Amino acid sequence: MPLALLAIESSCDETAAAVINLDGHIASNVISSQHEVHRQYGGVVPELASRSHIEKIESVVREAMSQAQVDWPAIQAIAVTRGPGLAGALVVGVSFGKALAFALGVPWIAVNHLEGHVASAWLDKQVCLTPCVIFIVSGGHTHLYLVPEWGSYELVGRTLDDAAGEAFDKGANMLGLGHPGGPALDRLARTGNPDIVRFPRPYHHKGGLNFSFSGIKTSLLYYLRDRQQEKADVRLEDIAAGYQEAIVEVLIDKAFRAVDHYHVSQLAVVGGVSANSRLRALLSARASANGVQLALPKLEYCTDNAAMIAAAGLQAYHAGRFAAWDLDAVAAG
Ligand code: KG4
Ligand code: ZN
Question: Does 331 map to a domain?
Fold first, then answer.
């Protein structure tokens, strides 16, 4: 039986566990999503997220062990997302992981959720050499990092208000698409024409490498209000496609501006929004036109999962970076 690490992720609304063999092979990747719990509220309710993690975590971990066909003696360490994320949700994973590690007599590894997302780009054996630009686009982050060498992350651009994922979620909400909004908006926009309704490209020509997505939601709100008054005959899918295009265009332009500015030829785009089909298509086209090496996670590794925590945890394991038993979850990023 190969030796392995167990990884746990519970920073938001997915209860997830994965097993990675010490050679880097993902032996299992189990995700229990809480979408049904939060749908009626139109967004993630932190208290309900914590309760749901408590209910699910043991069965999710058991399922990951069973799918990987490993027994407890094979587990050499337990990697857990320590933060950033929802405090109560993180505490469930950290407490469970620490207790299990203690009982098994193995160390635990505290993984930064963002480093987990970064590691997701390499789970598929895609290589990104340094120096590179790493772009984390998720529900909580829109962060551009210059990475001169591994382990050194220089934040060179970020959102000044909402994250790109929030702009997708809130836009989807206004369009009546429910929760989670990003994937639903992506699906609807696939049948729409992005050129019928043109939304302003927020912060496109200002703010350097920073972003701002709060204004675009207001534009959509006004557009929908006027449309109702004027009974304009514009299809919902065209509005969705136009709205998505405005977000995606700014994300891509600024990512490539960072690549140009820092004279790097490698770009990795990770996080939930990197699952967006339009973003992936336009990024790939732009990367090949510009001779830029692009690393994108496989779809299953874009949104929160424990395989990415396992991959980041494995790097820490090989470097001997284990966590103290009194280390706690930390919500802030
Ligand atoms: O990385 P993630 O699972 O959680 C955070 O760390 O935030 O990202 C979740 C975000 C949500 O805002 C969700 O709507 C967005 O990623 N998302 C998408 C798509 N799939 C997930 N946004 C646009 N298009 C998608 N296909
Ligand atoms: Zn995430």
Answer: no
